[in-house]
Amino acid sequence: MPVDHKRINAPESAVPYKLFTKLNTESLKEQYQKAIRDGIRVDGRKPSEHRKIFLKTGIVAHAKGSAYIEQGNTKVVTSVFDPREIPNRTDYCLKGEIYCEFKFAPFSCPKRRLHQQDSQEKECSAIMKKALEAVVCREEFPNFQVDVYALVLHNDGSALSAAVTAAGVALASAGIPMFDIITSSTLAIQGEHSLFDPNFREELLSEIAIEKEHGVVILCVTSTHQQISHFHQTGNLQLNTITQSIDTLHNTCKEIVPVVQKCLVKSVLSVISES
Amino acid sequence: MLILSSEKTDNPARIERTYYLISENIRIDGREREDYRPMEIETDVVSHAFGSSRLRLANTDVLVAVKIEVDAPYPERPLEGKLEFFVDCSANATPEFEGRGGEELAVELSNCLSSAYRSEEVFNLKKLCIMKGRKCWKLYVDILLLEVGGNLFDAVSIAVKAALWNTQIPKIKSINVDGSNIDIQVCDDIFSCTKLDVTGAPLMVTVCKIGDKCIVDPNAAEEQCSVGAVVVAVSRGNICTISQTGTGSFHPDTFKSCLILGISVAQRLEDSLTETLGEIKANQDVGFLK
Amino acid sequence: MPQKIQMRLASNRVDTSVVINRDIPAIYTPGQIISNQNEFLRGHGTYEENGQLKASVAGVREKVDILISVRPLKSRYHGKVGDVVVGRIIEVQQKRWKVNTNSILDSVLLISSVNLPGGELRRRSAEDEHMMRKYLQEGDLISAEVQSVYSDGSLSLHTRSLKYGKLGQGVLVKVFPSLIKISKTHFHNLSIGVSLILGTNGFIWICPIINNTEENVGGFVQNLEEVVPKSIRATMARIRNCILALAQSKVMLFDSSITYAYEESTKYTLAELLLPEVMADVALSTQQKLILSETE
């Protein structure tokens, strides 16, 4: 693990104090039962209920386009910068590229994050890149790349989905030509419980095998073409569960589309009224 | 596609691509869509490792070695051992890997492997615990790409499974706890080792979309022509990770049919691998340098 | 019904050598003295030191009168004027294309050495230069002839004949250039409905036979719509696998060796042709057939 010498890092062996609290002495099963009681989740939602979304464009003045998303407690800032020539590239490539950087702020999770990208953040960046490349008209800027940065200020679950949705809005508000609007949604499965738009705790618990079937599914969909631009799953699930979750997640993603559209229209209207 | 998109000399033009578009169920090398190329496997090739394997699938060549060390468990998971994957894209494989060229691919591969092995249903890390919260075994799985000729994910997952199958974990004779010092005594007898349980270890199948058809085991040229691929990691008939490579998008129905194809192919792979590993006799000649 | 997946142990590897009781000629290694006499001309793969001729590559000696050269098995392609080559466009530059022909340096195809659409005697205008990417793009395959060899060894190509030009739908197979036997023609229309271009640079192009040659002006017209029927695809795949089988066992490639291999392969299914033992068997029986036909 390369160490960043320019900053003063926290002691490496430090551990969040929450591990020693009472909560951690309970078995995982008890913890999960607490998280969902009689079909109602801790924050009072039904399993199939999505959290409320707040979307706003133009919050980073220097960027070509930017968006801020709030999905429950999850808060993500995304920004898009002007296309520039791909560095360190000599040959001609017909399609432009998208460079994504996904980062958790050091204080965004229960455990402190380092300033350098760790492997999880790199994986999220790669997923974002693949999801976005499918919706951007890349042949319009050959040999150029567009930089997209996503910074998670508060991670309360489904951070990657929120980042993808927001990045789509940021790209659109930056005037980058796009085929479609992209929305994304997460599903956490444990046994027969399928929780839409999980919060941090639910996401964490679904990654651990309490029941035989468990896992986290992320789906990114383009709205009018009805295409899956990216699909990612971890855990251990049967084929049936996955095909069902594709259908239900697809519907959830559709429900987010009006929010995105409204936000984009609003940002245009606000510019008009200013002038 | 996968990585070598910038490899100048081997980028098939559109006209050739139309030929690759498989309208009939026959590919350029005569295979059907669901056919695999023959492969060659061997285990126990690295004497300094606790388990190792080498797999050659047409032009793809992968060497996997497992090293075991004693470590302290993660504080949040005191009962579990550790398993880590490192992929090394050697510049021997292709000059593009020189410097940091292969880093993106290496990260993609190792992330895919570690998320496939993360579930307890797939690979039980609790067996690697020596003493709760204090000591555990840590498995380093080092994957070396010697040659890249398409279908890396499948090849790597098969080689990793074979290497873990081959891995021997030393037996612990006694543990002495003296305050914060822990003294572990390991059996001297090199033959008294325990084997890992790898029945659930996942196999990954890359289902590649060319035109409107899906194929498995694409060769390098087919990978270049494809618009996108789904990597399905299958363990005991269940899916433990799905990931996508390339930039294409899928219709939900195509996507589902890819998953079904992936599961059925993984089952066939599993059968062949079990059969082949069963044929291995002790102390037989290794063919690495033959 | 899909085939069973073939997985074998490395200890059961198949020997692919097909050498049958033939004298193996002396093989020289780099630095080894070939000749002490002063009467020689230095050829490829050799260097001169203290009046002695030494090999610079590992391979067999070839002697033509007093010209001594060493020919390695594996090498990049050494171009000669008049050779037929198959190459891939790797770069579009001003007034010329860079072509990968498997030779030591990249080859060039000047815009003045191609037949542009609309007649042979046309001036190359500045517009043509702007349209270059429209004629040939990065990744396109062409067949061409070597026009001249520059002093640094790089090749200049030309396509000023109707038989050369851009290639359409088909399969490219790469083998060592030394396995291609130089013969009168490198364009073959096999009776089984497949057309072959055996590029002397080791690139072999397999495609269905095209009949309408009169439409083919300068070879820049391609038919992308036409779907290759399944039977032709199967034959092309079989030819491809046969060539790879022969190349693996280092059998020389020319029209009759490929036809023999095709005939020998018919007893196997297409998928079986990928198995190493089947490939070795095809190569072996082809070799025997070739020796028989030589002695007759």
TrEMBL record, chain A:
<keyword id="KW-0694">RNA-binding</keyword>
<protein>
    <recommendedName>
        <fullName>Exoribonuclease phosphorolytic domain-containing protein</fullName>
    </recommendedName>
</protein>
<dbReference type="InterPro" id="IPR020568">
    <property type="entry name" value="Ribosomal_Su5_D2-typ_SF"/>
</dbReference>
<dbReference type="InterPro" id="IPR027408">
    <property type="entry name" value="PNPase/RNase_PH_dom_sf"/>
</dbReference>
<dbReference type="GO" id="GO:0005730">
    <property type="term" value="C:nucleolus"/>
</dbReference>
<keyword id="KW-0963">Cytoplasm</keyword>
<keyword id="KW-0271">Exosome</keyword>
<keyword id="KW-0539">Nucleus</keyword>
<feature type="domain" description="Exoribonuclease phosphorolytic">
    <location>
        <begin position="49"/>
        <end position="177"/>
    </location>
</feature>
<dbReference type="GO" id="GO:0000177">
    <property type="term" value="C:cytoplasmic exosome (RNase complex)"/>
</dbReference>
<keyword id="KW-0698">rRNA processing</keyword>
<dbReference type="GO" id="GO:0071028">
    <property type="term" value="P:nuclear mRNA surveillance"/>
</dbReference>
<dbReference type="GO" id="GO:0000176">
    <property type="term" value="C:nuclear exosome (RNase complex)"/>
</dbReference>
<dbReference type="GO" id="GO:0003723">
    <property type="term" value="F:RNA binding"/>
</dbReference>
<dbReference type="InterPro" id="IPR036345">
    <property type="entry name" value="ExoRNase_PH_dom2_sf"/>
</dbReference>
UniProtKB/TrEMBL annotation, chain B:
<dbReference type="GO" id="GO:0000177">
    <property type="term" value="C:cytoplasmic exosome (RNase complex)"/>
</dbReference>
<dbReference type="GO" id="GO:0035925">
    <property type="term" value="F:mRNA 3'-UTR AU-rich region binding"/>
</dbReference>
<keyword id="KW-0271">Exosome</keyword>
<comment type="similarity">
    <text>Belongs to the RNase PH family.</text>
</comment>
<dbReference type="GO" id="GO:0034473">
    <property type="term" value="P:U1 snRNA 3'-end processing"/>
</dbReference>
<feature type="domain" description="Exoribonuclease phosphorolytic">
    <location>
        <begin position="36"/>
        <end position="170"/>
    </location>
</feature>
<dbReference type="InterPro" id="IPR020568">
    <property type="entry name" value="Ribosomal_Su5_D2-typ_SF"/>
</dbReference>
<dbReference type="GO" id="GO:0000467">
    <property type="term" value="P:exonucleolytic trimming to generate mature 3'-end of 5.8S rRNA from tricistronic rRNA transcript (SSU-rRNA, 5.8S rRNA, LSU-rRNA)"/>
</dbReference>
<dbReference type="InterPro" id="IPR050590">
    <property type="entry name" value="Exosome_comp_Rrp42_subfam"/>
</dbReference>
<dbReference type="GO" id="GO:0071038">
    <property type="term" value="P:TRAMP-dependent tRNA surveillance pathway"/>
</dbReference>
<dbReference type="Pfam" id="PF01138">
    <property type="entry name" value="RNase_PH"/>
</dbReference>
<feature type="domain" description="Exoribonuclease phosphorolytic">
    <location>
        <begin position="202"/>
        <end position="263"/>
    </location>
</feature>
<dbReference type="GO" id="GO:0034476">
    <property type="term" value="P:U5 snRNA 3'-end processing"/>
</dbReference>
<dbReference type="InterPro" id="IPR001247">
    <property type="entry name" value="ExoRNase_PH_dom1"/>
</dbReference>
<dbReference type="GO" id="GO:0034475">
    <property type="term" value="P:U4 snRNA 3'-end processing"/>
</dbReference>
UniProtKB/TrEMBL annotation, chain C:
<dbReference type="GO" id="GO:0071035">
    <property type="term" value="P:nuclear polyadenylation-dependent rRNA catabolic process"/>
</dbReference>
<dbReference type="InterPro" id="IPR048565">
    <property type="entry name" value="S1_RRP4"/>
</dbReference>
<comment type="similarity">
    <text>Belongs to the RRP4 family.</text>
</comment>
<dbReference type="GO" id="GO:0071051">
    <property type="term" value="P:poly(A)-dependent snoRNA 3'-end processing"/>
</dbReference>
<dbReference type="GO" id="GO:0010468">
    <property type="term" value="P:regulation of gene expression"/>
</dbReference>
<dbReference type="InterPro" id="IPR036612">
    <property type="entry name" value="KH_dom_type_1_sf"/>
</dbReference>
<dbReference type="InterPro" id="IPR004088">
    <property type="entry name" value="KH_dom_type_1"/>
</dbReference>
<dbReference type="Pfam" id="PF15985">
    <property type="entry name" value="KH_6"/>
</dbReference>
<dbReference type="InterPro" id="IPR026699">
    <property type="entry name" value="Exosome_RNA_bind1/RRP40/RRP4"/>
</dbReference>
<dbReference type="InterPro" id="IPR012340">
    <property type="entry name" value="NA-bd_OB-fold"/>
</dbReference>
<dbReference type="GO" id="GO:0071034">
    <property type="term" value="P:CUT catabolic process"/>
</dbReference>
<dbReference type="GO" id="GO:0000176">
    <property type="term" value="C:nuclear exosome (RNase complex)"/>
</dbReference>
<keyword id="KW-0698">rRNA processing</keyword>
<keyword id="KW-0694">RNA-binding</keyword>
<keyword id="KW-0539">Nucleus</keyword>
